[in-house]
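Revision sheet: C-alpha cells.
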Amino acid sequence: MSETVASLVVWEEGKMRKSDYRTFNIRGLDQADDFAAMHQAVDRRYRRRLEELGEMPDLILIDGGRGQLNAALAALEGLGVEETPVVALAKREEELYVPARPEPLALPREDAGLRLLQQVRDEAHRFAVSRHRRRRSARTLHSRLDELSGIGPVRRKRLLTKFGSLEGVRGAGVGELVGVLGPALGARVFEQLHPAVAEAATEPTLVPAVE
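Predicted:
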C-alpha cells in the first residue's frame, strides 16, 4: 500500500502562516482508511500542541464530510479538548458540517465566510499535492542513483551536493563526474547514465574503401 500523508495549514490574523504548515506520515494502517488517518493526524497535531503551547486554536477546519468530522471529534475527545470549535467542509457540494446539526449547512456560494473556508481548504490541498510531488521526486532520485554501480549513501550525497538533482547528475560531463568520484568510478557512472553515448564511443569507425 502506498503511504498516506495528511497535511495541515494555518490561517492566522488574516493570512496563511506557511512556516507553521505540517505534514503527517500516517502509520500503522494496513489499507486506506480516511477516517483512521484523520483521527491519527488530529491526535498527533493537537497532542503536541497541548504539550508545547498548552492551548488550542480558535477553530479547526476539517477537509471532508460527516465521517471525517466525527473522526476528528473522537480524537479531540481523547485529548480532553471537546470545547474547541470544529467544522468540516465537504468539497463536492461545498456543504458545512458542524457537530450540533444532523444535516449539513448549505451556505450561499457568495457567502464571505464560506469563501474563506474554501480558501483555507484549497490551500491545504495545494500544500499536500506539492509535498507529495517533492517526496515522489526524491524517492525517484534516490532509487535511480542507488541503482548505479558503486554509488552508496556517501557518494550519492556527494553527487547531490555537487549537481543538485538527478537531472544535474545526468547533465554532468564525464570530466565533472570524474572530479567528484575519481577516474574509474566517474567514467563508469557516466557510462551507466548515458549507455547510448558510451556504446557509440566504443563502436568502430567504418571508413569506406576507395579503389
